[in-house]
Amino acid sequence: MILKNAKIYSEGLIHKGALLLNDGIIRKIKFNPKENDFKELVKRNQDNKELDCQNKLILPGIIDIHSHLRDMGQSEKETFLTGTRAAAFSGITTIFSMPNTKPPAILAKQIKKWMEKARNNIFVNVGFISGVPKGFDYDEIIKIIELGVIGFKIYPLNSINEIDWTDTLNIQKLLNISYKFQIPIFIHPDWPLSQRKKTDLYQEFMVERYPFLEFHNRLFPVHMEAKYVNFILENCYKIITNNNLDPENYPIIHFCHISCKESYSLIQKALQMNSKLKITFELTPHHLLLSHEIKLDNPNNGKVLPPLRDKEHSSYLLNELKKGQVNIIATDHAPHTKEDKQEELNALSGFPGFETYPLVILDKVFRYQVSFENFVKAASENPALIFNLKNKGFIKEGYDADLLIVDKVPDYKINSQNFKTKAKFSPFENFITSVQIWKVFLRGTEINNDDSVPNGKVIKRML
C-alpha cells in the first residue's frame, strides 16, 4: 500500500511525502516526491492499493505502557476485545496490561492463561506486566520471566500478593531481582496513610462536606506519594552501593502515574546526580490537564489513584511536557461499570483513558501549546526505546507500519457514549477538542473500522 499526499512526522520535522507499506513494514519513505519517485513506489507496491491522505498528518502509533484490560474475572468491566478495540480506534497500537486481574497474575500458570486468552482477541499489540509471586518464590519468578513478561508491578496501598511493600527488605529483594535479570519494576508510588489519620479525615469530611474529589486528594496526599518515591530511590542507591554495581547492571525502575511536582522533582534530582540510573516515569493525561476542582455530574467519575491534585501540580507537570522533560505519557486506562461508580465513599478508583488521551493531548499540540516533537517522544519514541520494543515507535524504513493519521477539525465535544470501551464515562466528558483520528494502521492493516478483525500480537520482553 502507498500512503500518498500526506504530511509525515519524522525525526522532529513534518514533511510532505508518501510511504510504501509492504508486508506490514515501512519499506520506503519519500519526502516531497517527484514524479519519478512516485513511479518507483508504484512499481514496488505489492498490493496495488493507494490511500490519498488528503494532506493529513501521519504519526507513529501511540504506545501506552499502563492499562488495565480487565477480562480474566472482570469481563463485566472490559474484555480484551472491547479494550483493545477502544485502543485501536484511538491510534494506540501497543499497550501494556497490569496484573490486578481476578485472581491476580502472580503465578506463571495464571500469566500463561492470561496471555492465551489474549491471543486472537486483541486488535492491537499487548505486553503483560506480572505481579510478584507470594513469598518471592524464586522458581516461580524464573518461570514468569521466561514467559516474556515486560516487568513486575507493585501496589503498596493494596498488595495483590500479601507482600508488604513498605518493608525495606522486601523492596531490596525486588530490586535484586531487577538488577540480576535486568527486568523493569513498575511502581505505584504511594505510602499508606495511617488508619487514624484516615478516620480523622472521614470525620472532617462528614462535618464540613467540602467537594468529594478534594477529600479523595486529602486521603492520598502528595507528600505520601513523594515519600514512597524517596523510599524507592534510597533503596536503589543501597542496592547499587552494597553490590558495587556497574551502570549496566543497575536496577530498572519505572514510576507509574507521577501526579505532583514533589515526586517529579525527586526523580529529576536523582537523575541529575547520576544520569546513568535506570529510572523512568510516566504522566497521565488527567494529571496533566485536570485538577480536583473539576465539576462533574458524578464526582466519582473523576475518582482515581493517585487522585486529581491541586491545579498547581497539573500546571507544573504540563509545563514540563512543554519543555520536553517528560519520559512517557500513559493512560492508566481503568474501566469500571457504572454501578462501581455510584456509591460516594466506596466507589472504585479509575476511569477509561484510551479514547480521550489523543483527543486531549494532541489538541494541545494542534493549538501550539505542546510541540509535535515532545508529544511523539513521550507517546511513541521513548516507550519503544525504554522498553526495547524492536522496530516500533518511529516512522523509519524497516520499522513496523504502526501508524496514526490525524487531522485538525472544527472544535467538538467529547462524548463518552461514543466510546468503544465498555466504560462509557469520563472526567473529560464535554471537553472541547479539535482532533480527528482518521486512520489507524497496525502492521499496515487498518484497524479503526467496524470490519477490522483482531490481529494484534502478544508482545514479549526481549531476553
Over the alpha carbons, how many angstroms does the gyration radius reach? 22 Å
For the record, the CATH architecture of the largest domain stands as Alpha-Beta Barrel
- At the fourth CATH level, what is the homologous superfamily of the largest domain? Metal-dependent hydrolases
Question: Given the C-alpha coordinates, what overall shape results?
Answer: globular
Estimated structural class = alpha/beta
Tell me roughly what share of residues is in helical segments: 25-40%
Topology:
Blueprint: E1 2-10, E2 13-22, E3 25-31, H1 35-44, E4 50-52, E5 57-60, E6 62-67, H2 80-88, E7 92-97, H3 108-118, E8 125-130, H4 138-146, E9 151-154, H5 168-181, E10 184-187, H6 195-208, H7 212-219, H8 222-242, E11 252-255, H9 261-273, E12 278-283, H10 285-289, H11 311-322, E13 328-329, H12 357-366, H13 372-386, E14 403-413, E15 432-442, E16 445-446, E17 458-459
Parallel strand pairs: 1-4, 1-5, 6-7, 7-8, 8-9, 8-17, 9-10, 10-11, 11-12, 12-13
Antiparallel strand pairs: 1-2, 2-3, 5-14, 14-15, 15-16
Helix pairs in contact: 5-8, 6-7, 8-9
